[in-house]
Design brief:
It is a single chain. With 133 residues, the chain is of the alpha+beta class. It has a single domain, classed as Rieske Iron-sulfur Protein, CATH 2.102.10.10. The protein contains 5 helices and 7 strands; from the N terminus they run ββββαβββαααα. The strands form 3 sheets. It has a 3-stranded antiparallel beta sheet, with no helix packed on it. A two-stranded antiparallel sheet has the order 1-5. The longest helix has 7 residues. It is flat, with a radius of gyration of 23 Å.
């Protein structure tokens, strides 16, 4: 399967509008206008289309970024509409990257809660005076 990258910015407002996260989704919906895009970035649903007038869905998709895959790593070009030569950019590093055999690695993710827990902060002193005797 070829990698495909689109920017998660609204085609209507140009602002960041699509939710980020992890996993696989077949559809993405802009929380502001509720326009729906497929996982190729094509506009497939326009909520309240009658209020927008005629919408050319072919030109209102998400912005695609050029990307290349080498040794299990996806390299995007962050300038929309610009192609790049990943092999010349990687140069001699391409062999070192291939030696890592990243295609055999497994992704492990863990979610951390940010900030301290208010309960531990408020009740933490109990242990010292009572349970810690």
């Amino acid at each position: 399967m070829e990698p495909h990258i689109v920017l998660s910015t609204s085609a209507v407002t140009g602002g960041e509008g699509l939710p980020t996260g992890k996993g696989h989704q077949a559809r993405f919906s802009c929380p502001y206008h509720a326009w729906t895009y497929n996982n190729r970035g094509e506009l497939v649903g326009v909520y309240g289309e009658e209020s927008f007038g005629e919408v050319d869905r072919a030109t209102m998709g998400l912005t695609e970024l050029a990307c290349e895959e080498r040794a299990g790593v996806i390299f995007p070009c962050l300038t929309p509409g610009k192609a790049f030569d990943i092999d010349s950019w990687l140069g001699e590093f391409a062999d070192k990257l291939a030696d890592q055999q990243l295609t055999n690695w497994h992704l492990y993710t863990e979610r951390y809660l940010r900030g301290s827990g208010w309960k531990a902060t408020m009740d933490g002193y109990h242990h010292i005076t009572t349970a810690g005797r």
